[in-house]
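=== RUN LOG ===
request id: a7f3
mode: sequence -> structure
chains: 1
length: 312
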Amino acid sequence: MHDLILHHYPTSPFAEKARLLLGFKQLSWRSVTIPPVMPKPDLTALTGGYRRTPVLQVGADIYCDTALIARRLEAEKATPALFPEGREFVAAALAQWADSVLFLHAVSLVFQPESMALRFAQVPREFVQIFSKDRAQLFSGGSVAAIPLEQARSHWPVLMARLQQQLAREDDEFLLGGAPCIADFAVAHCLWFLKATPVTAPLVEDYPDVAAWLGKLLGVGHGSHSELSAEEALTIAREATPAALPDEAFSEPNGFQVGQQVAICAVDYGTDPVEGELLFAGIEELILRREDERAGVVHVHFPRIGYRIEAR
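=== RESULT ===
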């Protein structure tokens, strides 16, 4: 058995989502702090170029994107369930909406000048310039564009009113029932991002049912974790053997074959390609085999939704 290792940094909203998932599952994990901006040489030695945050490492298996990380944690510990029986589709679909539509609105609101001035008040100006350039590159070449601030401001009351209406019901405490699921945590990390400064916090706190619900979710904490250096994580990967492939038929409708050299990349943003040997294409998951002089032989896992395969 290998430790769960999360590569993340404190202010990343998607990292907060992963940390809350680990807390919800009451799992122990190791924490590797990564830079918030490129370059990230220790991380990309594991991923082959994937730069988004966070990344979950289990031995020599590297899991990209919180949509897939959630499923890996569900496999690690089935209860409490992130995908409740009978509501798997609704939970996954609502989480996908939150991770895309709601998140992009939150980003626009967080990155408004008044908010950024507070977030970076104690940060050297040089880093602010580096950060701004890095985020511009992150959204370059993908299928999504930043939502204009005026549009985000106009849409936000609608989005929050709908959440407020859903959470005002007396019969259910959370979005899809009496217990949290993946949909709750996908919405929560967007709102956690907004609560970071007094400029954007009222966009959550002005909706009492939403604010109370968010408090319960953040109250699950982050589980039990201890620090690990990036070099130690690379050693763990290098000395481990990747896990056996899923017991599921290979299914690739575009004709890619087992053993073919391909690149996999996100389609929305952070589209840096990861090249390797295609080992597995299942209903939810894609797996590449790649070898790195520092990390050794690793299997890099991606969700199928939101990613594309290209021939190499």
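=== NOTES ===
The CA atoms of residues 120 and 287 lie 38 Å apart.
The chain has eleven helices and ten strands.
=== END ===
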